[in-house]
TrEMBL record:
Protein name: PPIase cyclophilin-type domain-containing protein
Entry GO MF terms: peptidyl-prolyl cis-trans isomerase activity
Source species of the chain: Thalassiosira oceanica
Chain ranges of the PPIase cyclophilin-type domain: 72-188
InterPro entries xref list: Cyclophilin-like_dom_sf (IPR029000), Cyclophilin-type_PPIase_dom (IPR002130)
One Pfam family of this chain: Pro_isomerase
Amino acid sequence: MDLCLPSKPAPEFSYEHQGKRHYITPPPGNIHGEQFLMVAGDSEGYKVRCEITVNSQQYMDYLDIMVKPYWAPRAASRFLELVRQKYYDGVAFNRVVPHGLTQFGIARDFATRTKERELTIWDDFPKGIKFEPGYMSFAGSGHDSRTTEIFIVNPGVSEAQLRMFGENSWETPFATVLDVDNSALRKIYSGYGDMPHFGGRGPDSARIYEEHGYTYLSKEFPKLDYIDRCYVVDEVGLSDLSAGDL
């Protein structure tokens, strides 16, 4: 549960979890005049599965992700919201840098990506969590600029590069790919490299945001891999799964 409280809340509030009532005294408000809490009971996180293509769309595989609300509550809440809205279904892995990062998050539908691009969330307050391979963060372009794009730190990243993640205020880990060294993350096509802005041959993200952005991807970058669908594991019933999932 996400709670955004007014600047002068009642001195105490309570909630019930698994038959027990818990009492909370809210912390002081932040610089925005808000008080933000995530009440997750005794949950260690929320497991999300993303079914993806790998090896340049030759096979299907999956990434299991554990979302950690207490690492970065705003980011975790926003990601789970987008997953539940099926925003990431059909999205391309448009930036894959070997021993660097894998980035995605520009919706296939033009109207959807245009709308969500306007909805920014504030930065999370740092919790001192250092990036490691498999850790996930929203990408951004400045203070309080996060929208929908996500990056994952790839296995094999150098120590120097690893230390650079998190230098920007909007780069805050909120989730991790489970068993990252043996995950499908290593199988996502990376032959195009980084974006042109960083000296690579990969897609220009600005062009993907244009009306015919996914036509641009399919014509000029046919080897890219894609997310088929993402879902919160505990919220998917048997009726939602295909025979191949069972």
